[in-house]
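Table S2 (text version). Query chain:
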Amino acid sequence: MSDTKPDIVIYGSPVSPFVRKVAGVCIEKDVPFEIEGVNVFDPPQWFKDISPMKRIPVMRDRSIAEEGVAGTIADSSAICAYIERKHPAPSLYCADAFAHGRAVFLEEYVDTSLAMAGGLGIFRPIFFAVTKGEEPDVAKAKEAWSKTLPPIFAFLDKELEGRTFCAEDTVSIADISLTCVLMQIALVAEMPLGDYPALAAHYERMIARPSIAGPYAKADKMIRKALPERFDLT
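Corresponding structure-token output:
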């Protein structure tokens, strides 16, 4: 057994969909990596030094530097693009120029619009409250589910209509990002997608992939300790 550490270390937590996105990219590409936990609410100074936005994840490539700012990249999209360039096969960014642009756009859309609606609207009002010993703001979560998310789900459903994957005929960064962000809702609430059949079918295909299922299982184990049951927001 080798004690050699992998070059890629991801600072963050499996609870973060963006940490899971980077982990998913590494798994799809068979790139060795490890996750080193960081408390983003009270981060150590060394993390503040390498995370200008004070967010997770931040990646370090140990082949460049073992410590300090050198060899670090902040932001999940930048990290995934770096891993793609360093480990180009299999590509997760599409060979066709238009498909590439489409994949990058959808990644950005779900990392912003969907993550904001699901993360701030549902995950945080439920889980953050529980971790602080407070009552979950289920009313806020229900409002997000019934009002904020439907147009986002409808857009994604239309984009996926007639498609197996988001951009080409194989998995891309868009598929990984979409599923990881959707699963942030699934960590704390039931997520019926019957009104969005194309999105639902894509979700079921993706959650079976080891790159998605493995990181999610670790996050789910952590969440279930504080929140044994998911909420019904319908």
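Notes on Table S2: The mean pLDDT is 96. The longest strand covers residues 8-12.
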